[in-house]
Amino acid sequence: MKIWLAAILWALFTIQRCGAADWTPPDDPEPQKILDEAQIDAQAGRFETALAKHIWYHRNALKYDSAQGGVRLSFALSSWKQLADQFPPALDDLKAERDATKERVLEGKNFPHCFGDLAGINRVLGEEKQTAETFVVLDRDRPAQAILAYLWAEDALLQEKQYDLCGKYCDPDQAYRQALRNYKDSKRHVLRTPESLRLLQSSEARFTRRAATIVALMVITKRHKEAELIADKAKDAIDWEPHRKAIDDALAGQMPKPQ
């Protein structure tokens, strides 16, 4: 009985893989449509076809639609990882894509975009340590490229408690201004939505976390004056007790917990 069951499962698996060989992108491909189709294929159990579409999307989406940049490194990679949780070959291919990307990073190719790809794939794999280790190599061998890669590497470096390395590359004023700009832009957007209160709170929490991270990093790396200046600005930005407490905790050298 077990032999028959194994034979049936192998036959189904073989059919799926053969079916994927028939898929080719259309002459005028629409990346978002192909990504959507990959999800539908995965839900229907057409795993190999879904995998082929994920690989095509990751490698080609930006050639046809530059607006796919954010989706490609967030939702699309998460979707690929969800497929990998059901279909082991998808995990093998995702790791192979990561390894090939790492090689391009170490060769200095397509910078800093390839480092962003590396960080994104490692994030969905839960292997941020590899991102941090690769950045350490750049810091040692190619510091000019490390400057370009830092923002992609920062979360991984913080998780690995590489605070001195973060302090070397983090410009606190620039980082804070960008965080405040992102918060204000988000605030203007959410006030136009029905769920404005919940979205506003989420936006405030992101800003709080970012500001507290900058302050704590400055304290830990002995840049206390810069920490105090950023903390004062951050406290003036939002009149919210949890926000003020988070900034005070950061002034005491407490880094926000990794998400």
Task: Describe it.
- The protein folds into two domains: 31-167; 172-251, no CATH class.
- Helix content is 80%, strand content 0%.
- It has helices at 2-21, 31-43, 47-64, 69-73, 75-86, 88-106, 113-125, 128-141, 143-159, 163-169, 172-190, 196-220, 224-237, 241-251.
- 32% of the residues are buried.
- The model is unreliable at 1-21 (pLDDT under 50).
- Residues 1-20 form the signal peptide.
- This is Tetratricopeptide repeat protein.
- Keywords: Signal.
Topology overview:
Elements: H1 2-21, H2 31-43, H3 47-64, H4 69-73, H5 75-86, H6 88-106, H7 113-125, H8 128-141, H9 143-159, H10 163-169, H11 172-190, H12 196-220, H13 224-237, H14 241-251
